[in-house]
Amino acid sequence: MTRVTVRDLRAARLCLQGARSWFARHGLDWQVFLREGVDAEVLAATGDALAMRAIAEAERRLAREQEQEQSHG
Questions:
Q1: Residue bearing the bigger pLDDT, 37 or 1
Q2: What is the signed CA dihedral for 28, 30, 32, 38, rounded to 10 degrees?
């Protein structure tokens, strides 16, 4: 399961202030997101193109992390 974090929003070059408003419009808790991230499925369910950009960044991050683990393991 992919979790999208604030780091992924930044990597996607999304404005955090705008993202905060976007979360509110979609009934998502911004503070929980900052602490824990959010499941990609939750963002994907909105159908929003910007959410898909953040999900893509999260998937790239996870792929990089897995590559690093494999090269060190």
A1: 37
A2: 60
